[in-house]
Amino acid sequence: MAEAGTLHDAFIDELRDTYDAEKQLTKALPKLAKASSNSKLRQAFESHLEETQGQVERLEQVFESLGEKVRGKHCDGIAGIIEEGKSIMEEDFDDTTMDACLIAAGQRAEHYEMAAYGTLVAWAQAMGHAEAAKLLQQTLDEEKAADKKLSGLAEGGINQSAADAAHSEEDEEPEAAVAGGPRKSAAKSGRR
Ligand SMILES: [Fe+2]
Ligand SMILES: [Fe+2]
Questions:
Q1: What burial letters (b/e) apply to 28-50, b meaning 16+ CB within 10 Å?
Q2: Most buried of 70, 99, 108, 128, CB within 10 angstroms?
Q3: What is the set of domains in the chain, with CATH numbers?
């Protein structure tokens, strides 16, 4: 009879899942960068791409520190998040709305990663894998910083300019819309 798996087995499994997730993100982040109109947003995705490449290598160090072979296992969770991001990029939004949506897509990925690394750090600590815990914590900190940067860009102007484009002068209030005649199909007043 096969022995029941331990937390260590689950830990290695989660590491493989996360390794694959990071690799998927190294392919997705350039697409988010390319779709960005705001230059600071594009730079944020580009610099997080560089960080993500470093995170892949850091996970390889984690496997080594545990005496495990470097191996990935398809991560369905991040694949779904990336798939949703792709559908957003196919939508016909004005530039600033697209930027707001790219931030939303990017933050979904960051939060998924924060959840994964939060668990990995806690499990590594609980099992006394100090080197792995230290490395994983470094990545967790980078994910949190990337998430914060995206929030800063959203709240620092991108959301508001998208909102201004959504509620342009002719359809601010229902009454105003009636008084102002038919709505224009796509409000572009917020475009740069
Ligand atoms: Fe990452
Ligand atoms: Fe990330």
A1: bbeebbebbbbeebbebbbebbe
A2: 99
A3: 7-160 (1.20.1260.10)
Q: Which residues surround ligand 2, an ion (CB under 5 A)?
A: 113, 143
Point out the ligand nearest to the CA of residue 147. 2
Q: Does residue 38 sit in helix, strand or coil?
A: coil
| Maximum Cα interatomic distance, the chain, rounded to a whole number of Å | 77
* Per-residue model confidence as pLDDT tens digits over 134-155: 999 999 999 999 999 999 999 9
* Ligand 2 centroid – CA 88 distance (Å): 19
Contact of 177 with 80, CB cutoff 8 Å: no
Asked whether the CA dihedral 150, 152, 155, 157 is positive or negative, the reply is negative
Residue 47 CA: which ligand is closest?
2
pLDDT in tens, 51-72: 999 999 999 999 999 999 999 9
Please report where in the chains the tokens 């939004």 appear, as a residue: 93
- Nearest Cα neighbor of 12 from 78, 77, 81, 59 is 59
Closest ligand to residue 55's CA: 1
